[in-house]
Design goal:
Largest sheet: none
Oligomer: single chain
Structural class: mainly alpha
Number of helices: 5
Radius of gyration: 15 Å
Shape: elongated
Number of strands: 0
Length: about 120
């Protein structure tokens, strides 16, 4: 693995941790810590987070796309299930998961274009 691959893979892991923290902390704790990032539209927040994860994952592990898509879709579903628990006390919304999946597709398209441009230059 070269330095660029390691950096992208590390960025994926850090981004995944941030997404998990932001999605699994109860709202009062997020407000207490002053977290108010993202868009006003919750679905856009979901799509952009998972698009970012898909881009980083596809660039970091280009030979593992099917595994990446499966993993991210399962993470999105798990987030929704966990948000519905009394401990987190947020809403389970299937359309949030749909937004996650749309973000994954968009992120893969961006990564595909980025790979195509890099191959043409190299």
């Amino acid at each position: 693995m070269n330095f660029c691959s390691v950096a992208i893979s590390t960025a994926f892991i850090v981004t995944l941790v941030v997404v998990l923290v932001l999605t699994l902390l109860p709202v009062p704790e997020l407000q207490e810590f002053g977290f108010d990032i993202g868009f006003d539209n919750d679905k856009l927040n979901h799509a952009s987070a998972f698009a970012t994860l898909a881009v980083l994952g596809a660039l970091g592990w280009p030979r593992r796309i099917v595994t990446l898509v499966t993993f991210l879709a399962l993470v999105g579903a798990a987030i929704e299930v966990l948000q519905s628990t009394p401990l987190i006390d947020r809403d389970l919304d299937v359309f949030d998961w749909v937004a996650d999946c749309i973000g994954i597709v968009v992120g893969l398209a961006v990564a595909l274009c980025a790979n195509w441009v890099m191959r043409r230059k190299g």
